[in-house]
Specification:
five-stranded antiparallel beta sheet; mainly beta; 1% helix; 71 strands; single chain
Length: 793
Amino acid sequence: MIQLFRLFPALLLLVCLLHPSAYAQLSVPEAEAVYGGRIRSITGIATAADSSRIFITTESANTAFFADVYHPGPDTAVFSAFQPMPDMSAAANLGSQVSEIAAHAGSGRLFFLHQGQVKSASPAGGGLRSYPGGGPSSLLIQGDYLLYLTGNRLVFGQLDAAGNFIQPPASPYIFSGPGPGPGVPRMAVSPLSGLLYLYLGGASPKLFVSSDPYDAIKSTTVFADISPAGLPAWGEWRAFGIGPDGRLFIAGSDFSHKTLAYSDDGTAWTAYRLPFGGAPGEILSFGGDSASYYVYYANAYNSSQGDSCCWQGFGIPGGFETHPNDGAVYADPAGPRVVYMTTDQGIGASVNGGSRIFEINDGVEAVQVNDFAMHLSDKNHAWIASKAGVRKVSDYRSSPVWSPAMFPNGDGSPYYSVAMAGTDPDKAYAGNVRVYKTGNGGASWRRVFSAELAPYNYASAGTPATGAAWVTSIAVCEWDTSIVFAGYAIDGSDEGGLFYSMDGGASWSQLLLEASAVGKDVDVRDIVFSQEGGSTVVYAGVSYDLSSPQGRSVYRVEQVAGSWVVSQDMDGAGTSTGSPITATITSLYRSSTGDTLAACGTDAGINHPVAYYKILSGSGQWTPFATSGFPFFPGKQGKAVTIGKDTVYVAVDHEVYLLAAGSSTWIKGYTYPNGTQIQFLFYDELLVGTGTGLYGHDGIAGGSTAAEPARVSGLRVSPNPVSGMPLRVSWDNAPAGPASAVLRDLSGRVLHIRKTAYSGDIELPAAWFGTPGVYLLEIQAGNRRETVRVLVR
C-alpha cells in the first residue's frame, strides 16, 4: 500500500520528525455532558432526616447509578450528580438485564435480580454479593427484612448493618395451597398490619395476603386468596401498591385510558378510568403519611389519596422541561412531595408532588448516542442524535453548553441521524423513522420527509429491531446546502433505500441503487459527499444482501447534467487488487482535506472486520489498509472509521484501533467494556459515540524512547523510561490547588492513584513501576490535565 502520509500532506513534516518506532495511543475517555437514557427502575433510602440516596438502573452497559439528595426545607431539594455504582458500571458487564431493585437503608446496599440470582452492591464498591436460591422472580426489602420469591418458595430473613443475610429456620416458606402461581408476582407489605401481599397482574388479577406479618412468617402461615372480583375488563391490570393508610391499589391501562381500582377492606373495590391514556406502568408509589398522601403512577400524580377527582399528568399545571413517560416512579423517603419519574431524557424530578418537573440527568452516562455532526470550519457548534432526543452544543472548544434534549416529533422516539446544513449552526436535519429540519437552532422543527408514505410505504411502527424503517444517515452538501441525502435501512427481510432532495428538503425522490422500481432497494448505512473534478459526488455505504435486489459495499453517485448517475464503486475496476469487494460497509468518512475517503465494515464471506481507503486523485481505487495488527477475526464487526491529523481510527466491536501515519501496523488504542456499542467516531480530537454516552479522547503521540524527561506543556516526568525507582512529576508554573496522578495500563484500567493538596512536585513510588511495559500517566493540577506515555524497563 502507499504510505499513509500521502493521506495527510499538510502534516508530512510532523510525520518525518517522528522516530520510526513512534506510535499513537489514546487517553482514557472523558464523558461529554450528554446525560440521560432510558431508566428501567428507581428506588432509594433515607440517609438522614433531611437526606436521601436515590438509585437507578438503566438500559445501558452502565447498569446502575446513585445520587445524594439534600432536603433543606419543604418542597426544596438539592440534587447531586449521579455516579456509577462501582460494581455495576460498564466494566462489570452486567448489561441492562437487571429486572428489579430494592435498597437497604441499614447497610446502604442496592439489591437486584440478575441472571437468576439475587445480588447486591455497595456505592463504595468492594464486589458483588450473591444470595441463596435460584430463579428469583420478585424482590422486596421491608425495614431490615429481605424477601424474594423463587418458584413456589418464599425466601426471607434479616439483613444486618453490613448487608449480610441471616436466614431463619422457617425460610424458605413453601406454598402448598393458594399462592402466586405462574408469572411474575409483586410483593408489598401493609404499613398498618405488617401483612404480606402477593399480586399477579393481568386481565383478571390475583391477590393473596398472609395470615402472619412479614417478619413472623412460619410453616403454618396461610396465604388467603382475596383476588378482586368484578373488576371491569379494562385491558391489563398491571401495578399493585399499598398506601400509607393501608388502602390497596391496583392500576393498569387499556391504552385509551389509564385505570385504577382501590379497596379499604380488601373486599369492596372502587374502579375508574383516568382522564388520559398510554401504556400501563409497572409501579405505584406513595408520598406522605396516613393522613394525607400523593399517589404516583406511570406519567401521572394524584394529590388526594387516590380519589378519582384529583389526577393530573406530571408537569401540569406547573410545567415541565422534559416529557414524562409511562415508566418507573418513586417517592423520596425524606421529602414528602419529592418524586422521581422516567422521562424522554432519562430521569426527572418534582419537588411539589408532580406539578412541575425537571430533569436531573447530570452524570447518567447511559445515553445511546447514534450520530454526530460538526462542520470542520466551525468547531464551536455541533449536533448529536441519540436514543434520548437531539441535542445541540455551543462553545464546544471553550466551555461547552449542551441544550436539553429536543424531540422533533413531539414524543420520546429515538433519533438515529443528524446533519448540519453548511456552517450555520442553527440549521440542521435529524432522522428517526422520518426526516425533520430546523432553521432556528431547534426552537421549532418541521417534518420534511417520511418513507412511510406512498409510494414507498415503509413500515414506521415499532423499532429497527422489530422491522421498522429508520433513517441511518443524513448528509447535506457543503458547497450546495439545497442538496440533501437520507439513507434508510430496514432490519430483516425488507430493504431500505437512498433518498434525496434538491431544494433543501421541500421535496424528495428515491435514487435507485439496485431495484428497478421505487420502494424497497438496499439498506443504506452511511453517506458522504465529495467534490471531484468540479462534480458533486455522493458515496453510500450499504449492507450486503443476497436477496433480490442484491446490494453490497459502496455505491458512487455522480451529478451529471442535472441527473444522478449510479455505479457500484467496489467492483474489480474500482479496487487496487482488481477483485470486487463484497462487504457490509457501515461507516464512511471523508478527510478534512477532502482528498481521501475511508470505509469500514464487515466482510460478507469470512465475516471479519475490514477497512479501506480511496485517494480521490489518480487512479481513485479502493485499497485495503495495512493488515498487521488489525483484528481479522470471524464474528467481529467493523463499526466506525475516521481520519485524524496523522492517524486513522477504526472501531471494531468495542475496541478502537489506530494506524499512525508512516506506520504499517495497527495498534489497539482503547478497549471499552465488553458489550459497549460504538456508534460512530469523529475526529477533533477523537470523539466516540457509544451506547452509554459521548466520550472524548486525546491522542498521545509517542516519540523516542530515549532516557529523557517527557515534557508536555511545561510538565516534567522524570526519569522516563523508569525502572525500579521513584518517578517525579513537576510543572514549570504549577497552578494553584490540589493535584493528582493516575497510572493506567493501555486498556485504561486504573492501577494507582496519588492525590496531593497542592500543585507542587509529586513523587510516585518505585513500586508503581516494577512491571515492564508502556503505561499512561494522567496528571491533573488545577484546571490543567496532561497524559504522558511512560516506559517501564
